[in-house]
Amino acid sequence: MNRITQKLQENKKILSLYFTAGYPGLNDTVPIIQSLETSGVDMIEIGLPFSDPLADGPTIQASSTEALENGMTTERLFDQLKDIRKTVQIPLLIMGYFNPILQYGLANFCRKCAEIGIDGLIIPDLPIAVYETDYQTIFEQNGLLNIFLITPQTSEERILHIDKISSGFIYMVSSASVTGSQNSFGKEQENYFKKIAGMDLKNPQIVGFGIGNRETFLQATQHQKGAIIGSAFVNFLKKNPIESIPDFIKPIV
Amino acid sequence: MNTTYHATEQGYYGEFGGAFIPEMLYPNVEELRQRYLAIMEEPAFQSEFQALLTDYVGRPTPLYFAERLSKKYNTRIYLKREDLCHTGAHKINNTIGQVLLAKRLGKKRIIAETGAGQHGVATATVCALMGLECIVYMGEIDIQRQAPNVARMKMLGAEVRPATSGSKTLKDATNEAIRDWINNPVDTYYIIGSVVGPHPYPDMVARFQSVISAEIQPQLFEKEGRKNPDYVIACVGGGSNAAGAFYHFLDDSNVQLIAVEAAGKGIDSGESAATSTLGKTGIIHGSKTLLMQSEDGQITEPYSISAGLDYPGIGPLHAHLFTSGRAEFAAATDNEAMQAGLELCKTEGIIPAIESAHALAVLEQRQFGTNDIVVINLSGRGDKDLNTYISYFGL
């Protein structure tokens, strides 16, 4: 069974962490992943940096630019990750924009992910219809889950369709925003969380965007299965050494 | 079977186009996709659009027979005078159309991206005209380079927000505008300035700009007794003026279309914007098209002396015209364009925008037949480029 699916069956709230590969240092990828696992994180999204990350706010944009300046490439990331499964057991996803993956070749990319032991992909600008007609089979052949996003503006009909074609989980964007643009949840989001929970979807939901500490983690996971921390962690890495990652994670879990 | 070079219902031109957008943008783009054609076909919309084009923009723009230029190149050259449009370029054809559409969609806040500032000025202008809030994203570097246009936008009541990410130019301004739209999905409408971006933008902008070729046909008929020229020449950055000038000739293979890209300091110099030669298929700003990128799929920064042509992609229509061979793609260097611009000043008394001067540069590159009718789209006037002309020629 896919590690993501297995993890989601555990009777606990899931904490997922995002970081940009190649940031702050080019070779920090593996130490960050290892430290996150030992600190108690349930799942990791490894960000493949892109020059033009449309859905990301200033924090992740800046980390992507810096990672690229550090020399991060798709090939180098795969090389860094080649032995990751010797030390890391938790589910690993790669989150990246479509163009770098397209240039690598989607089939090659998926095959490489399967070899390494990546469990899923999040490609925010890969349209659902294109995925279904052109790429679904390739994902399935390589045992990769493709994770789709929903937002407060996504229609109910579309959410049901996304639920139908999803496996693993649905990435629930907490509000109309790019990443890292807010730091607390209001009534509107609370209602949205409740509404989605009440839809009785077959896939659990994991909330992303706007989660940065224990308080927001608890709010986001009151009705949903888990939450993703991204920008807040990237910000932490900007100011603190990798050895102090447990200081960031421990207060949340 | 009739081949067509127009967009399919899903916004594809051959393999190019589509809407490669994050879910956060889906509701807005989908609403637009579902409604743009119906709104554009409404008689009330059309009459309002046409009235503004006539009375406010100053259309139809002349199709001018350039006698001295024709004599020099021993062919029959007509200039489509988009430079005479209000605000100085064709850009306003599109912003008028989109702002009317935005109003019908009930949007209160308009955002736009701009490179050289022409689209920003055209957007600020129509927002002032309609009394709508207007925010224009512009790369921090372009803000410094194009100070007069920044001042114009401010005078017109727009807020100019610097894009400080990435290379701080047009592509980053576009990224920032898209992020703004993600953050403001309900009340905001994004006026894209070229035939780029996710479907339906390339088709919608091409339709608004198609007024250019719609006018050429009867104007040419009146002067030459035929509707279609032998050649239509236009410069391509994103490609909106070319899309408009080609539009009604796309499916008539007797009309040869020539798109002129900016070669910058030379196609192989590393400082160029000749996307059709240097680009590969990929995704930029929600569209599958040809774009300049690294081997790893990172979008690279183009260069041209003309700020309106240094976009790393081309519209998906143009990518299709290039790969299918329907249009011929030429390239003019900075120097060829500047010389062609100066030549038009001296032979015809018209100071062209440096963008449009790239189209004129083709006259030096190839010989047209004595009886060929060559229409060159003069997309904009050169007032905004005076400083560049002055420093280039030491005037």
Automatic annotation (TrEMBL), chain A:
It is an enzyme of class 4 (lyase). It catalyses: (1S,2R)-1-C-(indol-3-yl)glycerol 3-phosphate + L-serine = D-glyceraldehyde 3-phosphate + L-tryptophan + H2O. CDD domains: Tryptophan_synthase_alpha (cd04724). Its EC number is 4.2.1.20. The keyword Lyase applies. It holds the Pfam family Trp_syntA. It comes from the Bacteria. The keyword Aminoacyl-tRNA synthetase does not apply. The active site is at 45 (proton acceptor), 56 (proton acceptor). Pathway: Amino-acid biosynthesis; L-tryptophan biosynthesis; L-tryptophan from chorismate: step 5/5. GO terms for molecular function: tryptophan synthase activity. Keywords: Amino-acid biosynthesis, Aromatic amino acid biosynthesis, Lyase, Tryptophan biosynthesis. GO terms for cellular component: cytosol. Belongs to the TrpA family. PANTHER family: TRYPTOPHAN SYNTHASE ALPHA CHAIN, CHLOROPLASTIC (PTHR43406:SF1), TRYPTOPHAN SYNTHASE, ALPHA CHAIN (PTHR43406). The alpha subunit is responsible for the aldol cleavage of indoleglycerol phosphate to indole and glyceraldehyde 3-phosphate. Tetramer of two alpha and two beta chains. This is Tryptophan synthase alpha chain. It comes from Flavobacterium supellecticarium. The gene is trpA.
TrEMBL record, chain B:
It catalyses: (1S,2R)-1-C-(indol-3-yl)glycerol 3-phosphate + L-serine = D-glyceraldehyde 3-phosphate + L-tryptophan + H2O. Its cofactor is pyridoxal 5'-phosphate. Pfam families: PALP. Residues 58-380 form the Tryptophan synthase beta chain-like PALP domain. One of its GO terms (cellular component) is cytoplasm. Pathway: Amino-acid biosynthesis; L-tryptophan biosynthesis; L-tryptophan from chorismate: step 5/5. PROSITE patterns: TRP_SYNTHASE_BETA (PS00168). InterPro entries: Trp_synth_b_CS (IPR006653), Trp_synth_beta (IPR006654), Trp_synth_beta/beta-like (IPR023026), TrpB-like_PALP (IPR001926), TrpB-like_PALP_sf (IPR036052). The modification N6-(pyridoxal phosphate)lysine is found at residue 91. It is an enzyme of class 4 (lyase). The keyword Amino-acid biosynthesis applies. Its EC number is 4.2.1.20. Keywords: Amino-acid biosynthesis, Aromatic amino acid biosynthesis, Lyase, Pyridoxal phosphate, Tryptophan biosynthesis. The keyword RNA-binding does not apply. GO terms for molecular function: tryptophan synthase activity. Belongs to the TrpB family. The beta subunit is responsible for the synthesis of L-tryptophan from indole and L-serine. Tetramer of two alpha and two beta chains. This is Tryptophan synthase beta chain. It comes from Flavobacterium supellecticarium. The lineage of its organism: Bacteria, Pseudomonadati, Bacteroidota, Flavobacteriia, Flavobacteriales.
